[in-house]
Amino acid sequence: MSDVTFISHDGEKREAPLEEGASLMQIAVDNMVPGVDGDCGGEAACGTCHVIVDDQWVAEVGRSGPVEEEMLAMNPEREPASRLACQMRVSENWDGLVVRLPEFQM
Amino acid sequence: MTTLTTVTDAVTERVQFVVPMQMQIRGAHLYDKTRRFVTRTNGQKIFVEEPIPPVEEVALADIDLSNPFLYRQGRWQEYFERVRNEAPVHFQAKSPFGPFWSVTRHADIVAVDKDHETFSAEPFIIIGEPPRFMDVAMFIAMDPPKHDRQRAAVQGVVAPKNLREMEGLIRSRVQEVLDDLPIGEPFNWVDRVSIELTARMLATLLDFPYEERRKLVEWSDLASSMEQANGGPSDNDEVFRGFVDAARGLSALWRDKEARLAAGEEPGFDLITMLQSNEDTKDLIDRPMEFLGNLTLLIVGGNDTTRNSMSGGVLALNRFPDQFEKLKANPDLIPNMVSEIIRWQTPLAYMRRVAKKDTMLNGQFIRKGDKLVMWYASGNRDERVFDRPDDLIIDRRNARNHISFGFGVHRCMGNRLAEMQLRILWEELLPRFDKIEVVDEPEYVQSNFVRGISRLMVQLTPKTDA
User: Fold this and answer.
1) For domain B1-466, is the CATH number 1.10.630.10?
2) B438: helix, coil or strand?
3) Do A106 and B411 touch (CB under 8 A)?
């Protein structure tokens, strides 16, 4: 089974099983990963599922698009590899994916 | 008409640069008095309270959700429930605020809120409009990209670094206020706790003279209770006088800050310093309508909202006493309860938009220029999203899906600060008091925008350690 690792701001690691086709936000929420809220339910309209993709995974996972940018651009913790997890549709090639979480969600 | 408006707009813009703010407001006041005299509306209230009939006695097309007494009279739930189920995108053709669409379901509200290409937040986010020349500019009522630049200038005040710094300060202020409360005798929770705490917080955020903090509350209340804007109770003379006072006070604050910085004082974390150190806003004071608008926005944004969630939480836990028992048994539920309280209270009832083009919304044809009101208060009670939506359930699984902060680029920027203040309040209340009893019927604010509690008589029983 393939896994994703969420690393909290304090460095705590949390693994969750990857489910192809689901959004990364849904996976985090379903597995009660602390630090991912998903308040708007996956509409890219609240910015509370902000994750920072590990450098090694940026090429595979891709960067944020204009829809995500609307919320990310206002975020003071924004980094170049920032994404909204609700807009990340999990693919079969993502086994071992690592993302970091910001200190606060917006 | 159009030409006249264009000319007055141009004049307003020019005048902004050369005439001191207070003089401008006095001029606007005179204009408004003359207008009221000429149109013979002087001294007449637009809204006089009358009993609202039960919803089943009203034809669907006649339902007017802009009635500023719906909340006060406790009729709002039945009215919104019917509209949500029978006409979720509902047209009211002849309200005192003109024709408008009501968007009442959670999903439709999210769709409108996030689509700023189709639905503009300009020129106002309240259903009516402020008196002429008092139509100050605030970024909550601007579309991108101007909105983004102005918001970015102040966003930092609620950045994580600042929140961390503020947590200890907020806690000690909450402790001071709670330790001072009368025990075993009724008092008005709204005044002693909700207003007092938000006033202290606002004074801190603005680095405003602490002893004068109630002025911020006074200005905010005036700004958010204008009759022609949202059906509030304040008449224009009061509003204009309040604005002169606010303009004077806030300009003095700005100038004083400037002088202290120039004299070499360390820059603080406050909003004024932030505005002064950002390229886009450092000259804000030279654009008085924007200066007043954006500061008013930040003051109002941090005032009615948190205040009424502080009062609403106490009220809700009294209406649902089993939930208070659940909370005492498991204080770890506080963070989720805070979201649930914000859902249940929904301190601001709505935000309004104007369609920028013809469009369809849940089967209704919306014409370019139509006004739409996104009723957050209704979306938060949408039975399609929330089970037993009228109940407070402090461990509700999807409490965080509430819509009170709005969604999209205008999402509340103070949401984390608000949640933190409410969390700390309850963390400090639980170890102190065994009972927080509401001992009289609450009184509510007159408004279609602010869902406010003006009086909440409460009696406290301290915790006895067994």
Assistant:
1) yes
2) strand
3) yes
